[in-house]
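Backbone shape codes:
===
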Amino acid sequence: MDADDEREVEMRALLVYESMFGSTAAVSEAVAAGLRDAGLEVEVQEVRSAPAARDVAFDLLVVGGPTHAFSLSRPSTRAEAVRQGAGAELAATGLREWLEALGPREDAARRPAAAFDTRVTKVRNLPKAASTRAAHLLRRHGYRLVSRPTPFLVDDTQGPLVEGELERARAWGGEIARAAAAPPTPSSVAS
């Protein structure tokens, strides 16, 4: 057996995000850094260029998007973001469409997953948000959540992020990496 065969295979994470003004992109990079700190190999993809999940090898799926009208964005809410100054190219597709195309439940094989969102501070305690909808779609497609849907706060629609949120996102990345590596038990599966 050579040295390459003796090395433990790293867990691979796929992080797919949607970002209209840059805050969710910044949180995604911080989460990815936390995943890497925990020893995972991470591929970060903006949703418009993200391959279909069935075309990528990964052990953990992490998704994030901005909260639009208490949920994941839709074509109409992305168009509104463009009217507020987001790049027109960003309105083409969103995380909702990517998640809805995940494929059959058996493709997920109960692989671990986690979802986060960004939201403005004035509505921080939302009953529904992008991450709760993303988590619902992940479960519906057969993924096993290893964390509750997690919000990160921005001061206003166009940002900036609230102080300390990038550090919190990096720490959360490490937490979900450890949770994904642990064997699943009934009490470890997030609702």
About this structure: The first helix runs from residue 3 to 6. Residues 1-7 have pLDDT under 50 and may be disordered. Residues 8-181 form a domain with the Rossmann fold fold (CATH 3.40.50.360). The chain is about 35% helix and 20% strand.
